[in-house]
Design goal:
Strand content: 5-15%
Largest sheet: 5 strands, antiparallel
Mean pLDDT: 83
Number of helices: 17
Structural class: alpha+beta
Helix content: 40-55%
Shape: elongated
Low-confidence stretches: none
Distance between the termini: 62 Å
Length: about 500
């Protein structure tokens, strides 16, 4: 289909726009006469809320219109061709598709009679929430800034921390109807060309009506779509995004989404918090080890409990076994049903706490858990030890920094629970074998999921010893930190 050209006849352009924008009451088409004695017919098209008042003196559009009122038609033509006022972000558009696209992005589009091009003039854009604190990745030390819904603001937050022209930002419009702006950020001298090429190919290989959040991009472009484990690392923190870009990774920002997608992802990166780089290595190592133990506890503790009390009671001391038996006295359900019932109850409380707005959600999560647990024990529906097991399991899932990563283990927990409850320790071993085998075969943009990069294992190296970048970066740029010699210091 051939694109409609912008005509030098303003009436033809206006007719086309009014037909194309019919019943779009939020888009304003404003004819005007400018120049000395108002001899030049012009047209301004913009979205009512997205573009500020044209007559304001402090806006780019207002300055341009006010200037046009005072000059002759010939000078207006000269301005349009040369942008003699030097207004920021003014771009010439050659056809109507470009003009419509610029309009729907939140800019004003200016047409003038006798000129066969249009001018895109940027304004305040669509309304947004602005920059706010990071909510899901809270830290004690480090920046409190979080991404917003505006992709342009998010890119600015990254550029604020990485002031280097080697940081490249490439734009793509994804979605046949939504035309969602997606930006790919990377360090030109650090990223592997193969990785960058594959990212671009995956963004361009599908066609969809609309992309409303980065989560839709993630599901469309990941390697193994059926895996519960995320293959993109997601973060709402600009400082974390910059750190991963400096490691040679690629960040993908999606308009209307306050999350950055970082790729490739690996197991250890999901276990890290941004403040691990800011803490001393002893504490960072301790916290990282604690998170790994929490993941194990979340996944296998319920199943291990069932395996022991149903099949392998000999591994526990006699007094402990008698205590468990006494606690379960009077409970009408089997241990498997009892544990599944309480796990699902806690999942319901957790989901209710997320959906209820404000501080009431936190109260529901805490009070609801206490009340339901206590009531279930007093009614002899569950035993006290099961309440403790479920509480430890839920606490373990909350320790993992990435909620999406923790959700995978929350799902696996039910598989291990069934295997441990009906096959004992052999079922647990089978579940561990299948899980580790799946993780070992999982790839994120060609990078092994269980791969360990330099200094990124369970033990965190001291900061001054982390001299090498991970394997994601180019080989010739592998050195990240080095000491200056005396000559360099003196200079």
């Amino acid at each position: 289909m051939e694109k409609a050209k912008i005509s030098a006849n303003l009436r033809e352009n206006e007719k086309y726009l009014r037909e194309r924008l019919e019943n779009c009451s939020d888009i304003l088409i404003r004819p005007m006469k400018l120049g000395d004695h108002h001899k030049v017919d012009c047209l301004m098209v913009y979205i009512e809320v997205a573009v500020s008042n044209m007559m304001l003196d402090d806006s780019a559009i207002g300055k341009m219109i006010n200037h046009f009122w005072e000059i002759s038609p010939d000078q207006i033509q000269e301005f349009v061709r040369n942008n003699s006022l030097g207004i920021a972000d003014v771009k010439k558009l050659k056809d109507m598709e470009e003009a419509i696209s610029a309009l729907l992005t939140g800019n004003a589009v200016f047409f003038m009679d006798g000129y066969d091009k249009a001018m895109k003039i940027s304004s305040k854009g669509y309304p947004g929430m602005g920059i706010s604190q990071a909510e899901t990745e809270k830290v004690l030390r480090g920046s409190k800034e979080g991404f917003s819904d505006s992709v342009k603001s998010n890119t600015a937050l990254v550029r604020k921390r990485l002031r280097d022209t080697r940081l490249k930002v490439e734009e793509y419009y994804v979605g046949v109807r939504s035309h969602t702006l997606v930006q790919v950020l990377y360090m030109d001298d650090l990223v592997h060309e193969e990785l960058l090429t594959e990212v671009k190919e995956r963004l361009e290989k599908f066609e969809i009506d609309g992309i409303l959040d980065s989560g839709m991009l993630e599901q469309l472009t990941e390697d193994t779509w059926y895996s519960p484990f995320p293959q993109y690392q997601t973060t709402e923190r600009p400082d974390r995004t910059v750190q991963e870009i400096l490691n040679g990774k690629v960040a993908v920002l999606c308009d209307n989404s306050p999350e950055a997608l970082i790729l490739p992802g690996n197991f250890n990166s999901f276990m890290e918090s941004s403040e691990d780089w800011y803490h001393r290595f002893e504490m960072a190592s301790f916290l990282l080890l604690l998170r790994y133990l929490a993941v194990l506890m979340t996944t296998i503790l319920p199943g291990l409990y069932l395996a022991v009390i149903r099949f392998h009671t000999q591994v526990l001391p006699t007094n402990l076994i008698l205590s468990f038996a006494e606690a379960r006295e009077g409970v009408p359900f089997s241990s498997v049903v009892e544990l599944i019932f309480l796990e699902l109850s806690f999942e319901l409380i957790r989901e209710a706490g997320v959906r209820i707005p404000g501080s009431l959600g936190n109260a529901i999560g805490i009070v609801g858990g206490l009340v339901i647990g206590q009531a279930a024990v007093e009614a002899n529906l569950v035993s006290p030890i099961v309440v403790m097991i479920v509480a430890l399991t839920e606490l373990g899932s909350l320790v993992v920094p990435s909620e999406e990563f923790a959700s995978a283990f929350r799902l696996l927990k039910y598989g291990f629970l069934i295997l441990g409850g009906y096959l004992g320790i052999y079922g647990m071993a089978l579940g561990a074998y299948v899980t580790v085998g799946h993780l070992a075969g999982l790839l994120s943009f060609g990078v092994p999921y269980l791969g360990v990069a330099n200094g990124d294992g369970v033990w965190r190296l001291p900061f001054r010893m982390r001299k090498m970048r991970p394997l994601y970066a180019r080989k010739e740029q592998r050195i990240r930190l080095k000491e200056r010699n005396r000559k360099e210091k003196s200079q």
